[in-house]
Design a protein that fits this description.
The chain has 252 residues and is mainly α. 37% of the residues lie in helices and 7% in strands. The strands form 3 sheets. It has a two-stranded antiparallel sheet with strand order 1-2. It has a two-stranded parallel ribbon with strand order 3-4. A hairpin with a 6-residue loop joins strand 1 and strand 2 (10-11). The longest helix has 31 residues, at 151-181. The model has no long low-confidence stretch (mean pLDDT 82).
Length: 252
């Protein structure tokens, strides 16, 4: 009986009777060969094996697209090559000079006289302690108002601005608040300033301030028709300790 050259399988002649024992031996020989066979034996890389020395033939992709799981090495490397090829010089140099369409950075000047566009003001101009700075000039102008105006004129300017502020609150803020309160069946409001600022002194004072408490479902006549220091005095109501006013507001 002849044998195969490589695996030495037993070969039957045409006239040989079929011997099942011989057939089984052939199958067992095959099983033994494959049982010990490794990827290296057939020139392949084992699962999780080292492919450091393998080579991949690929073609750079025609456009930038994201890589996806399950793609072949050739497809993956082709996509990666496209992204790298499209990177500009600045991506590798990191140099501002290699940027295209660079923004125009204004030139910094330290003066208040430039009339041309494209210049940025030096930060020192905002420092009131730097001689010649814009902030210093404004500070000097503010502190010297009394040199150019009489005390009465300064008082009138302050008074006019206060009146204007109150008028703006009356015309712009109160209508919004009053309109919103219409949605409630009952509510309570307290109105008062945090401190007086007499026109005479032009600064904060510690004198008592007038206050008003209004309760929609429990209206009371205070005997006055306006809120100010003088009308508040006529009510005879005085709260000596400031925080106690909240207690009165919540309990009244």
């Amino acid at each position: 009986m002849k044998l195969t050259d490589i695996f030495k399988f037993k070969l039957f002649e045409r006239t040989d009777p079929v011997d099942m024992e011989t057939v089984n031996e052939n199958f067992e020989s095959v099983e033994k060969i494959f049982d010990g066979l490794t990827a290296e034996d057939v020139g392949a890389v084992a699962t999780k094996g080292n492919t450091a020395d393998n080579t991949v033939a690929f073609t750079t992709a025609s456009e930038r697209t994201k890589i996806s799981s399950g793609e072949t090495h050739a497809t993956l490397f082709g996509k990666i090559a496209r992204w790298i090829a499209d990177l500009k010089t600045v991506a590798f140099s990191g140099s501002y000079n290699d940027l295209s369409n660079k923004p125009t950075i204004p030139t910094v000047v330290n003066n208040n006289t430039t009339t041309e566009a494209g210049y940025a003001l030096d930060a020192r101009q905002a420092n009131p302690n730097v001689d010649g700075s814009l902030a210093k000039q404004i500070n000097t102008l503010n502190s010297g108002l009394k040199k150019y105006y009489t005390q009465t004129e300064v008082d009138n300017i302050i008074k006019k601005n206060k009146v204007k502020s109150i008028e703006m609150i009356d015309s712009r803020v109160l209508p919004i608040v009053l309109d919103a309160l219409k949605e409630y069946d009952d509510y309570k409001i307290m109105v008062l300033p945090d401190h007086p600022t007499p026109i005479v002194t032009g600064t904060h004072a510690s004198d008592p301030v007038p206050f008003m408490i209004y309760h929609k479902n429990d209206e009371k006549d205070s005997g006055v028709d306006s809120i100010n220091e003088e009308s508040a005095k006529t009510t005879g109501l005085f709260i000596e300790h400031g925080p106690d006013i909240m207690k009165r507001f919540l309990e009244d």
